[in-house]
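tool=predict chain=A
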Amino acid sequence: MTARRRPTRPRPPQRGRVLAVLVVLLLIMVVGLGGYAYLQQPPLPPRYTSTGPTVEQLEALGHMTVLKLSVADVLKGEGHGYKGAWLVRGDALYAVDMRRAEIDQREDTGRRATIVLPRPTLLQPRVDHNKTITYAVQRTNLIPGTGDQSKLRNESMKEAQELVERAAMDEEYVALAKRNAELVVRSMYALVDWGVDIEWDDEPRGSGELRAGSLELGDESSPPLTQ
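tool=predict ok
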């Protein structure tokens, strides 16, 4: 009796499997090489865009300090039975009130604008008592028990305050403050490729505004920038 042979199933072709594996490996290599080439590229430089100067941007700067100067002068005083001399040293600030800035002209196509700024104002002229030197104080009244040296010094320091303020109000310092303000504003907008022309509104300010914030300096000092 002859035994029956079971039918064998056909084996899937090995060639198809090998081809599929090769395709997957090829895709992995392509993706890996592409990622490596992307990582080797130099990073793109940052790009900045701006809508150009606006009143809100300028107002946000508030009182922009543009100059700090140092003042030195000799002061002589006589009275109350004494005479004395002092080397007075002090300092002062110049600031531009950017809240009063105006945009007069603006050209978006050429990225250029004209900004009108108010005249720089003098702030906080003050005597530096730590650096002020007393040269000499001598009695002029020969009557014993008369005279008041402290009163002469106090009145002299009040005059010194006025001296510092008058010296700081020189037009040379105003011109320097303007140049500094122009440099700051132009540099700020040059970073975003805007050109700025500066004009000045030199309408005189009241003496009360100029003297606002005046005070005498106790122990605070600062290095001289202009003398």
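Strands lie at 63-79, 82-97, 102-107, 112-118, 121-127, 133-139, 195-201. The two ends are 130 Å apart (CA to CA).
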